[in-house]
Amino acid sequence: MGRPLYFSHPACLEHETPGGHPERPARITAIESSLAERGWLGYEVREAPPASRQLLEAVHSAEYVDAVRSMSDRGGGAFDQENIVRAGSYDAAVHASGAACAMVEALLAAGGARVGFCATRPPGHHARTDTTCGFCLFNHIAVASRHALDSLGARRVFIVDWDVHHGDGTNDIFRGTNDVLFASIHQSRFFPGTGPLSDAGARAGEGYSINLPVEKGSYEDAWFSRLEHIVIPAAEEFAPDLVLISAGYDAHRDDRQGGCELETSSFAEMARYIRGLAERTGAPVGAVLEGGYALDALAASVCATMEALAGNEPADSVAPDFFTSRAAAHIGFHWRL
Ligand SMILES: [Zn+2]
């Protein structure tokens, strides 16, 4: 069994969004500074290859891929106010999709690694077949899932998306299929406005989309209960060959792009739930970075996730004491009411 794998590429720093844009290159440098200080947590660091056109076009239309590429080649432009393309954007997005594809290739190889993490940008989970949305150009986790199903022998892929925003692009791409089980926990009535509880998929995919909104201001108990009682049992029944996490960190209480109250340790706990599922089903697990814009919280939470996924947690990262955790205090508050 191989070491856990970490994928990134310097091209991901060349998607230079304008000053003040929250989705910025410093996100990756913050993560990598923390990882370097910690010896990369025992992960083997690999440089991501670019995704081929064939891989991208298994999810995105050729016209859309061309549109992103030509805008980059012209030196940049914008699909709209928040979806900015610069000269380096196409290359960044192609390497971000390539990282996710290389990760699933390694995870599904015989005797390969059981755990992977891709720290790449721009993020991907809002990107649809032929549109950009919410800072995302290509949908890396969808491209990698399609690759796993089409070429790597996977029959069922489970994607859990814990970004504070609904993973509408991924949900839309796999809405009609039953070979991908998609589960998203996200802030209700929030960007991009999709992902109500009633959205359970369509056609052959009916029942294969699990959308679990939480209220603004939710603490970790809201996320954990949905994972423990709905997402994990459904995923276990689904018996995936591959488990993927759309790992966004904007539900962290320090992140002003979201309105929820997760702690750094909350992400470690969610990763432990998913690691447990992966162990019970015999599937490898890989995470792909989505959002997360408060740099210190992002870097610490990525490290916490990677440690928990790899199962090499330090002694000080045991579950928080029940009586002192913010979540317990929150539950207690309501209990007394
Ligand atoms: Zn987000």
What does the model show?
By secondary structure, the chain is an alpha/beta fold. The protein is 39% helix and 14% strand. The protein has helices spanning 26-37, 53-57, 62-73, 89-108, 140-151, 168-173, 220-238, 264-281, 295-310, 326-336; strands at 5-8, 44-47, 76-78, 84-86, 115-118, 157-161, 180-187, 209-214, 242-247, 285-289. The chain has an eight-stranded parallel sheet with strand order 2-1-5-10-9-6-7-8, with helices on both faces. It has a two-stranded antiparallel sheet with strand order 3-4. A hairpin with a 5-residue loop joins strand 3 and strand 4.
SS-based structural class?
alpha/beta
General form: globular
With strands numbered from the N-terminus, the spatial order across the biggest sheet is: 2-1-5-10-9-6-7-8
The total strand number stands at 10
Low-confidence stretches: 315-337
Oligomer: single chain
Work out the helicity level: 25-40%
Total of DSSP H or I helical runs spanning 4+ residues: 10
Largest sheet: 8 strands, parallel
Report the C-alpha radius of gyration, rounded: 18 Å
Mean pLDDT: 93
Bound heterogens, unique: zinc ion
Q: What is the straight-line distance between the termini?
A: 51 Å
Strand content: 5-15%
Q: What is the ordering of alpha helices and beta strands?
A: EHEHHEEHEHEHEEHEHEHH
